Here is the input.
Amino acid sequence: KDVESKFWATYKKVSNEHDNDFLERANDDMGIILTFAGLFSAVNSTFIIGMQPNPGDTTNILMLQLIKIIADIPNAASDISYLSSSTGYPSSIVWMQTLAYASLAFSVLAAFGAVMGKQW
Here is the structure.
């Protein structure tokens, strides 16, 4: 019985050391993942903001159309129902923004996973 208890005491000591080393490495790795996910999210958000269309361009186009209507027909009632504030964007811009937003979502999800891993 003494040999068995020595074995289990040694086993417990070695396994606790191994578990503590594993948890320390996992905690450090989660911290690194959290740092890089945060930095990537910040850079990605900057690019997303830079890709946004300028709302002033749409306003300027609509203002020019209204001025043209007023200048062409000063006394007649003008029909402005055909004016649209929406502009068609090229599909490449839509795809780039879709990928940027998806990338941001996955980066935030990775950061969330890292926080959950650190708190677990």
